[in-house]
Design a protein that fits this description.
- The chain is of the alpha/beta class.
- The chain is built from twelve helices and eight strands.
- The chain has a six-stranded mixed sheet with strand order 1-4-5-6-8-7, with helices on both faces.
- The two termini are 32 Å apart.
């Protein structure tokens, strides 16, 4: 790819694209994870996508992690791609991890086998973490003793939306921020910019960008656009319901805070849709804003 064009892509945090791309670029995935985790895993580690876990319901449904990386027979990395805060459940993910840790164990295994098992859960979140922290870590902790109780599992929450913001405002551009922001890119040109020049060699970067372009076939882009538009419509329907008074009876301060949050999120959504070159008519229909209001927002974006 000698010339990078402004080609639209579904972002890598879209699970279908993530799995296609990184099933082909496994070494790069391991490298990215080493940067996030501060580890030094071999780049030829086994990567499994949608690894089936233990059955837990009467219909035999299998719970699945989005991605499971088998470092060795005792060590795993699980990746969850969380686009919306309301769909994120750490409790559910921990149940999946427990299922995964049970696999390969036999009755009577001693502590020397059990204690050496380790699973890391990485949540790539397109929303703010607790306390606004870029990379939040969680362990099972003894509160009074102030020490980690077990290394059997640990959780890493990376705010990829914040990574994107940091790149654009210039506040931070280290490898973790570049990797997180790369997951949000909506064009090949933007992806190339986010990756920078240090994470990958020139040849690796060109091959990676080509892989991303190949993954974004017409069917994938159509599925992404339909799913994204449906999410926007659901969010706006919910928020408009609050504005029509469904939240009556709550404290006045809560209502004001809710409306402020709704307006801020609506503005952010409109800006994202404008960046995606969605038509004024579609944005108006989804956001309940007039075309004139939308154009004014666009003019404000240009002046910023």
């Amino acid at each position: 790819m000698s010339e990078i064009k402004n080609n639209k892509i579904a972002p890598l945090y879209y699970d279908k694209v993530f799995k296609i791309v990184f099933s082909r670029e496994k070494k790069i995935l391991i490298r990215f994870l080493n940067n996030i985790l501060g580890t030094n895993y071999a780049e030829d580690a086994q990567v499994s996508f949608e690894r089936p876990l233990l059955s837990r319901d009467k219909d035999g449904k299998e719970f699945r992690q989005d991605v499971v990386i088998v470092i060795n027979e005792k060590e795993y990395i699980c990746i969850e791609l969380n686009r919306r805060a309301d769909a994120y459940s750490l409790n559910r993910n921990l149940i999946y991890i427990m299922d995964l840790m049970i696999l390969g164990l036999n009755k009577g295994d001693g502590s020397d086998i059990i204690d050496n098992r380790n699973t890391k859960l990485i949540n790539l979140n397109n929303f703010s973490n607790k306390g606004g922290i870029l990379l939040e870590k969680a362990y099972l902790f003894y509160i009074e003793a102030m020490e980690v109780a077990t290394n059997l599992f640990s959780v890493y929450d990376l705010d990829i939306a914040k990574c994107r913001e940091m790149i654009y405002n210039g506040s931070r551009k280290d490898n973790i921020v570049r990797i997180g922001s790369a997951l949000t890119a909506s064009t090949i040109e933007e992806l190339s910019y986010f990756l920078g020049e240090e994470l990958l060699s020139m040849d690796e970067k060109e091959a990676f960008l080509n892989t991303v372009m190949e993954a974004n076939n017409r069917e994938i882009l159509k599925a992404w656009n339909e799913e994204r538009n449906q999410i926007w419509k659901e969010e706006m329907t919910l928020k408009n319901s609050y504005k029509r008074g469904i939240g009556e009876g709550k404290e006045e301060g809560f209502q004001e805070g809710m409306e402020k949050g709704i307006n801020e999120e609506k503005l952010s959504m409109i800006k994202n849709m404008l960046e995606e070159k969605i038509s004024y008519e579609t944005i108006s229909k989804v956001s309940s804003k007039s075309i004139e209001e939308i154009k004014e927002i666009e003019n404000t974006m240009r002046r910023e």
